[in-house]
Amino acid sequence: MRSYVDTGVVEKIRAAGGGVYAITSEPQYLADQAHEHWELNFENVGDPHQEIPRICSERDWLTLYANKGDLEFLQRGADWEVEHPKGYFQPGVLALTNSGRILYRWRSVPSVENLNGTLARPTAKYAWSEIEKSLVAGDTAEDAAHDDQPEIDSTPPPRLVFFAALIANGWFLGVKSFLYSPGVASPQKRFAAAFRRWILFFAFWIAAVVFLPITPVVAAFACWLAWIARDVRTTISSLDVQEEIKATQ
Predict the structure, then answer these.
(1) DSSP state, 225?
(2) Domain coverage including residue 99
(3) How far, in Å, are 14, 136, 169, 221, 237 from residue 113 at the CA level?
(4) Dist CA 167 CA 73 (whole Å)
């Protein structure tokens, strides 16, 4: 969301007579903390019960996905209590006129390619350029179709690399998310720092092979591998539980 401020898109939208709001599935106090930490200049709205996404779906504006899986994986990466009574919804972008005409809409469809919705959002400049095109088309134009091929802000790494970073982030005792917490470094910086821990990890096992009896070292590594594999499978299962947020839910 910070990119909408840094690129000047927020001011451009306001200059065109519009407003910008961020909707999150977190409770309001966390939305307020993110607003302050990221130094945003637009309102953040906490919607843990998914009332706004349901309204958007009811009006055929935009239907978001929500993760309904276990929250243990997210909780490991947060120093606050994760509160998603109806799951956390995936990102989307929706731009409307006062009359309800859809200027732009995009939603994240969780897949292996975007790491279950973890990454790959339209850039702020791209979203604004699409909104501008719809504004130029005039009020008689049809609603904008769903954008399935936006210009994205970052290309997700291979899934193997992603989970390797999660394992290192948990100091090899289990996978740990890069969930936002007030005052911590950005996920990108933490991702890079965690990945460097693999150097220490391999150095530890190499030293163990050199200085200790090989049989117990191999047995210990096999036990660790089985433990981590189980944790990764459990995490993947929780991330794969995705449902569309319908108006009747």
Answers:
(1) H
(2) 1-249
(3) 34, 34, 21, 30, 16
(4) 11
In whole angstroms, what is the distance from residue 213 CA to residue 25 CA? 51
Rounded distance between C-alpha atoms, residue 197 and residue 199, angstroms: 5
The set of long-range contacts for 82-88, using a CB threshold of 8 Å and a minimum separation of 24, is: 82/179, 83/26, 83/27, 83/48, 84/25, 84/26, 84/48, 85/48, 85/49, 86/25, 86/48, 86/49, 86/50, 86/249, 87/25, 87/50, 87/243, 88/25, 88/26
Note the pLDDT tens digit of each residue in 67-121.
888 778 888 887 777 778 888 899 999 999 999 999 999 999 998 888 888 889 9
**pLDDT tens digit sequence for 34-65:** 888 888 999 999 999 999 999 999 999 999 99
Task: Report long-range pairs for 183-187 (Cβ below 8 Å, ≥24 apart).
Answer: 183/37
Which run of H or of E encompasses 209?
Answer: helix 197-211
Domain count for the chain: 1
Look-up of token digits 């917490």 = 181
Distance separating alpha carbons of residues 204 and 5, to the nearest angstrom: 44
Closest CA to 165 of 153, 154, 176, 156: 176
Q: Which amino acid is at 134?
A: S
What length is written for the chain? 249
